[in-house]
UniProtKB/TrEMBL annotation:
Residue spans of biased composition, Basic residues class: 61-77
UniProt-listed InterPro entries: Ribosomal_eS19 (IPR001266), Ribosomal_eS19_CS (IPR018277), WH-like_DNA-bd_sf (IPR036388), WH_DNA-bd_sf (IPR036390)
Protein name, entry field: 13657_t:CDS:1
GO biological process: ribosomal small subunit assembly; translation
Region: Disordered, residue numbers: 61-81
UniProt entry keywords in alphabetical sequence: Ribonucleoprotein, Ribosomal protein
Organism: Racocetra fulgida
Any single GO CC term annotated in Swiss-Prot or TrEMBL for this entry: cytosolic small ribosomal subunit
Lineage: superkingdom: Eukaryota
UniProt cross-references to PANTHER family, sorted A to Z: 40S RIBOSOMAL PROTEIN S19 (PTHR11710)
Length: 123
């Protein structure tokens, strides 16, 4: 690779948009219409940076504020179904694999693709 550019070296917003475009153009990813491809790209980037992430961690990451009326708001986890199906779709196209210690991790092919797209974002 030219200079060893990785996902960590580029702007996250630009990378997620570029990887989402790559996934759309490739057409290999079969996910339900209600799952946003941008969320899939964000999940791939997150697992690249922190391997061993599972459905529970993604639920916590994508969750938000639960408004409880007059009582103080608290954090609520997001749906596990969406996170699980995104992980399964990325596994099917060989970007992720199951980690022996739990959760998922990036495959060598997946890391190569993500680094290649990061290099394109840097240019």
């Amino acid at each position: 690779m030219a200079g060893g550019v990785t996902v960590k070296d580029v702007n996250p917003h630009e990378f997620v948009k570029a990887y989402a475009n790559h996934l759309k153009k490739a057409g290999k990813l079969e996910i339900p219409k209600w799952v946003d491809i941008v969320k899939t790209a964000a999940v791939a980037r997150h697992i690249y940076l922190r391997s061993g992430v599972g459905v529970g961690a993604l639920r916590k990451l994508h969750g938000g504020r639960k408004r409880r009326g007059t009582r103080p708001s608290h954090h609520a986890k997001s749906s596990g179904s969406i996170a699980r199906k995104v992980l399964q779709a990325l596994e099917k196209i060989n970007v992720l694999e199951k980690d022996s210690r739990g959760g998922r991790k990036i495959t060598q092919d997946g890391q190569r693709d993500l680094d290649r797209i990061a290099l394109m974002c840097l240019k």
